[in-house]
Design brief:
Blueprint lengths: L1 H6 L3 E4 L12 H9 L3 E4 L5 H9 L2 E4 L4 H16 L15 H15 L1
Parallel strand pairs: 1-2, 2-3
Length: about 110
């Protein structure tokens, strides 16, 4: 599966529309960051996933109803793919690795004890 992710023109990451998903960081997001391919997030543009995608320059998040924006982003990714320029610009994504997030969780647990 990882091999296919690294060959994709764009990786799709939809979130449910419910307001509580604004704070959600799906596990698939971390896999997609490692694939270094453009990520098309669909969900709350002011949510946690949108912030991570913007911070890492790994993709963009669009509201479910933004047909025009979604279409333009897919077209842009497809054109880049055809030109052989699909690698996401290198940014430090190490803080989203499993070891880094495990350390953060351990620190939170330690602070609660």
């Amino acid at each position: 599966m990882v091999k296919l992710q690294k060959e994709a023109a764009v990786l799709l990451l939809p979130l449910r529309k419910e307001p509580e998903y604004r704070a959600t960081l799906p596990g698939k997001l971390f896999e997609y960051l490692g694939a270094r391919r453009p990520i098309l997030g669909i969900g709350q543009t002011d949510g946690a996933m949108a912030r991570v995608l913007a911070e890492t320059a790994s993709g963009r998040t669009f509201e479910w109803t933004d047909d025009k924006g979604i279409r333009q982003y897919i077209d842009s990714c497809w054109e880049s793919f055809k030109a052989g320029k699909m690698e996401v610009p290198p940014r430090d994504i190490s803080r989203y690795s499993r070891p880094a997030t495990a350390r953060q969780m351990a620190q939170i647990f330690d602070s609660l004890i």
